[in-house]
Each structure stands twice: as structure tokens, then as C-alpha cells.
Amino acid sequence: MATRVQHALEQLKTTGVRITPQRHAILNYLMESMGHPTADEIYKALEPQFPSMSVATVYNNLKMFLEAGMVRELTYGDNSSRFDANVTDHYHVICDQCGKIEDFSYPSLKSVELQAESSTGFEVHGHRLEVYGVCKSCRHQ
Q1: Which residues are annotated as a binding site for Fe cation?
Q2: Which residues are Zn(2+)-binding (predicted)?
């Protein structure tokens, strides 16, 4: 993981972005977190280490990471964006009860995009697939 974080930080440096300890910590947290955290969750997790860091600092850095293509923003019905440092093609399965989100891979649904283009005349730029259910933890309660 550390090499992935270092690679991402090197990418940022080439665009002239200063690498602050807070930026390093936010990116590291995102890349290690499998739970697709919200900005508030990131802030709460890092607050003990960076007591002077504000929620706005977290949001501003997430926005910068988004613009650099290093993270994805996931928006769902609960009005709180979640952030994913895995920018490869993958899908999400979401627990209806606790809101846990897990990644899963499936061969790209390129044929669906092509069918959508041919049926509608749209120029399709991508798609998002979410699968809903109940996670193991919630099922065994």
C-alpha cells in the first residue's frame, strides 16, 4: 500500500501540488480504508493526529484528489458523499441495513453501454452499477 500512496504523491508533486502531512494522511487513509469513508469519517479518524485540521481542509483536499483523478466520489440517497481511492473499473454492493459498501469485480458491461448508445443516440461516457442486499454481519445479528 505504501508504494501506491508514494506513487500517488509523486504524481501530485509533478503537477506542482505541495505535499503536506495532512494531504499525505488523507490519501493514506483513503487508500487503506476499504469502507468508502465520508469526509466527516476521514476528519474524525485523523483529528487525533492533526488537531488543528478542519473539516474544510479534508473537503478541499478531497476535491483536489477528485480533480487529479486519484479518487472517486460516490453519491447515494443519504446525501453524504463517500470517497473511493480505487479508480479502476469495479462495482459496489451495498448493505440495506448498515450501509456498508464493498467492492466487487465483474467483466465490464461494455455491451450495455453500446446498447444504450444504439437505442438512444446518446454518446455514453460510462456507467455505475450498485447491487443492494444485506451483509454477513447484519444477517447474523
Answers
A1: 127
A2: 95, 98, 135, 138
Question: What is the pTM (predicted TM-score) of this model?
Answer: 0.76
Question: pLDDT 10s digit of each residue in the chain, 141 long?
Answer: 457 778 778 887 887 788 889 999 998 999 888 789 999 999 999 999 999 999 999 999 999 999 888 899 988 766 679 999 888 888 899 898 988 888 888 888 889 999 999 999 999 988 888 899 999 999 998
CA-to-CA distance for 126 and 128, rounded, in angstroms? 7
Fold of 91-139: Dna Ligase; domain 1 (3.30.1490)
Binding residues: 95, 98, 127, 135, 138
Binding residues for Zn(2+): 95, 98, 135, 138
Domain ranges of the chain: 2-84, 91-139
